[in-house]
Design brief:
The structure is a single chain. This protein has one domain: NAD(P)-binding Rossmann-like Domain (Rossmann fold). Helices cover 46% and strands 16% of the residues. The protein contains eight helices and seven strands, in the order βαβαβαβαβαβαααβ. It has helices spanning 17-28, 40-52, 67-81, 104-131, 153-173, 191-194, 198-207, 216-227; strands at 8-12, 32-37, 56-61, 86-89, 135-140, 178-185, 238-241.
Amino acid sequence: MAALEGKVALVAGGGTGIGRATAALFAREGARVVVFGRRERLLAETAEAIGKAGGSALAVAGDVAREDDVVRLVAAAWSAWGRVDVLVNAAAVRLHAPLTEVSAADFAEVLRINLVGGFILTKAVVPPMRASGGGSIIHIGSAIGTAAVADFAPYIASKAGLHQLAKAAAVELVGDGIRVNVVAPGTIDTQIGQEIPEFRRRVIEHRIPIGRLGHVDDVAHACLYLASDQARYVTGTILAVDGGWTAS
């Protein structure tokens, strides 16, 4: 039996990168998937690819930090399939700049998407998960939400906050049978990773004990584990998928 057979999964940030890979893997493992994000064309491509591979998917466009949009997302899943079992929050924005050059408005915008959006998504899926008998919430955090590097202060703050939000939610929601965890990737070979200059890329790889950048499927499979019943005793954890970077 497939790991997510009969389950309904929402994937925020499902149009690209880690979100798209996770949505595709979940569909292969039997889940019916709703992908969500701001770029309608990319969401449609994800849903179409899942359908062509024999899976079931819907695309809903919206902003994770707008409550009305997230309500529409949950309503679409409930209307189509009558339950919500899994949420993967892979929606995020990055800002690369020295701390002293970041405006308060830009700092707030990163927190709005990465942290407030995570709160809104978490809160919105609790009622349908309760009605479905429980569920699994998985936030995509970051290795640098644990160990800081230079020139990413807003992103680091937002991801560190997301890690703690997940722990708080895990404690509060355990009685509802809802597990809340974080997957914290290191440097992943997404479009952003591919834009790193070759010399800088080699330096990064040298600092990773495994010796390579991560792949989106490395993260997707970690999400699959946490979404599945195999992780029924796992909640409130930060699962590093970083090739050993934070351990070193």
